[in-house]
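Worked Example 4.2. Consider the chain below.
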Amino acid sequence: MQATKRFSKPLLTGAALALAFTLLPATSAQAQDGQKDFYRAEIVILQRLVDPAAVEEQMAGKQIEPSRNVAKSLWVEDASGRRMSDLKLAARNELHLGRAASRLENSGNYRILAAAGWYQSFPPNYDGSPMRVAVGDWLTGAQQKAVEGHIEIDRKRYLHVGVHLNHWQDGPAPEVSAPAVATSSSPETSGAEKTSSIADMAEKPQPVVAEPAPAELVTWIKETRRMRSEEIHFIDSPTIGVLVFFRKL
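Applying the procedure from the previous section yields the following structure tokens:
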């Protein structure tokens, strides 16, 4: 009779558990090292639906800092509304801030201009690059978006978000002067010729080329704030605001 080897089930189970617990600490440590500085970042840019003329803080004459050379785009829209971004952005309905954005929008007092969420590692002493923002209405006269600027995320001991956004509107329309009509003539010009020349110019006035209306500053946000994970932070001005949320993974 051929002998058969038999192993008890508890012995196999014990060996498997021992092997699993032997491998688990190293695997967990590797996962924690790879994700301890990994965050889900969310930013919502909104506009208050108020008449810019009603804003008490008149900023039309404020001096604007020269624009920084920003190579990275967070949320940039062109004249047709097409979005460009260098980040892999999540859909708005996937954001933790999605509900807050919807409540603000449904109140009728706010308009959501951008809702961005992405995953990124922010290790200690992380010096982030500014990310360009261009959203809102297209200003025909200035050939730009109404809200432009950049947002920057750094981490020293804590995460810090710097918001530098300008809210613009079309400037006053340029004055259009009536085409000038020549009244002087040479001595040799007869009266009939004068009348004919003036009549021709009246029928075919010279076109007046108007310069595009420059953009006029309404308000701005220039603020850097320390962020806590799992908390919603709100940075605002009289006409625009930014919601920020971080979740550590």
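Residues 1-33 have pLDDT under 50 and may be disordered. Residues 36-174+209-248 form one domain. Compare this with Example 4.1 before moving on.
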